[in-house]
Design a protein that fits this description.
29% helix; alpha+beta
Length: 82
Amino acid sequence: MADLKIRVFKAGEAQPETTVTIPGGVLKVASRLIPKQAAAALRDKGIDLDELIKLSTNPEISGTIIEFEEHRKNEKVVISLE
């Protein structure tokens, strides 16, 4: 299983301000530990955690899955499987 990586960048920065890595082996369990508010925020962005878990089991899928920008917050979020 691939690791799920979530990186948060400030606008114009090459290095992420924050990186969260969830190892693939515990992704299913860890998804249940994500605070409801965070899970709701992901759903609001159209991100389905269950689908990400399914994708992480496919060895042919890797790299950036989702990239979105929060213009009001001056942030970019990149979600990838590595």
